[in-house]
Please model this.
Amino acid sequence: MNIPELFARGGIAMWPLLFLSILALGTIIERIWFWSRILTREREVAGRVLEAARRDWNAATEISQRSSGLPMGRFLYSGLKLQEPDPEVFRLALETSANEELSTMRKGEKILEAVIALSPLLGLFGTVVGLINSLGSIGFSDLGRGNATAGASLGIAEALISTAMGLVIAITSLAFYRLFSGFVFGQAKVFRQSGSELELLYRQDWSKRPAITPVAVPPSEARPL
Model:
């Protein structure tokens, strides 16, 4: 039995299952392409920026700006691009950028979640419809005949095709969903570690800056109201 025949015998549920499979496949390919571009470079960018920040903040800013095509570069540049901000403002800028980047990394998770939930249900629906049609075609007068039993067995076997298809789609989507979730979790740890180190370096540099003492205005130079 080839694929077109298998699809034709699967019943009406095969069409929505085909749509879900295409949707899941497109999402998986897009996420693989996304992660293949950043996984091997994120730690390198973070290391270069942190190393430069220990010597020269302008150099660290330039490196992060040149790496703005990567999430890590945009994350670190969000704090470094500010003009001598307060340490709390610096930390808030990093946290805001991290939330935005991690949200982008989770793109496609809702689609895969929907595919994982709907595929087995649609497969089961197709099986139930197939069983109803198969058993409904058997009359009381045919119950004792061997050909009726063989026909019912063949109909039940064909009805289970949609369930198998739904399970294959759900299992494949679940595997990649877990894989991508693991990537996001790993990137969150890298973001947290890199952001904490950069914030610590900035706070140390901030504490070494001389405090600005306000200049007192002599009473004779004060303007009368």
DSSP finds eight helices and no strands in the chain. Residues 87 and 203 are 6 Å apart (CA to CA).
